[in-house]
Write a structure and sequence with these properties.
This protein has a two-stranded antiparallel ribbon with strand order 1-2. It is α+β, with helices and mostly antiparallel strands. The protein is elongated and about 60 Å long. The relative contact order is 0.07. The protein contains 1 helix and 2 strands.
Length: 77
């Protein structure tokens, strides 16, 4: 299964990027209205605020010397 984005051009549903499908391929279509976009924007805004408060400019830098126990499974890649 692959998730694709598309739009309605007034006559038909048009994929936003090329994708090959066989005839009669089953599709699931979700119609997202303006209310969905507004709610999504509100969630993104709140998420960004929380992220900024957790990792803001005043966040202290922690040096390697503060590590008390090294994780043996961490390879640093």
């Amino acid at each position: 299964m692959k998730t694709l984005t598309a739009h309605f051009d007034g006559k038909k549903i048009v994929l936003d990027e090329p994708f090959s499908m066989k005839p009669d391929t089953k599709l699931i279509v979700t119609v997202m209205d303006q209310a969905f976009d507004n709610e999504r924007e509100a969630w993104l805004h709140e998420s960004q605020k929380r992220f900024d408060s957790a990792y803001g400019e005043n966040e202290p830098e922690y040096s390697v010397e503060l590590i008390k126990e090294i994780n043996p499974d961490y390879d640093g890649k």
